[in-house]
Amino acid sequence: LHNQKIVLVATCQSGASLSSSRALRLIRNTGSCIELANLSKEQTVELMSSVFGKVSGIEALSDRFHAIARGNPSMVMNLARYVVDHRLARYQSRTWNIAEVSSNQLPETLDAILLSRIRDLNPAALQLVQSMALGPDQSYSLQECQVLGDHADPISLLRDLGNLSAEGLVVPIEQNYALNNPRMILSLVDAMSESE
Question: pTM for this structure?
């Protein structure tokens, strides 16, 4: 790659704190930041067609996503994941089949999507998220995470941290882990505790 130009594209949420990650600070200080605009209805259909293909029901599903997400690209993608996770969209015979989805089958906020993900956590992962939420501005080492989640072994801890990261609940920072959006997750965990 000597004397070659490269383009590095990275994303983060608007207003995200970059103070705890040297890598993000470096990217922000040396690169350009572009805030994504909300998608139009047509762009939402185009995005969902790129995810699911031009299949039957994609326009109706995209219209529902657009109405809920108001064009927010991240929310649209979270809704796409939600319909896959809840088997409202299934991949069969090399194509996506999309069920007719009513408005009451879809969450109306990102909080509702995250709450459904938190409810699906195993007990150790849930305990880890709840414990991390008590120190919302801190990051935790692997050893601290093992104690906080009461994990019996490091393998189960690493599996849970990988799953929590994939769910968008936890982010790795240097050699530690922190909640992705601590205050929102704390309020979701509290809401979940109150409903039980």
Answer: 0.67
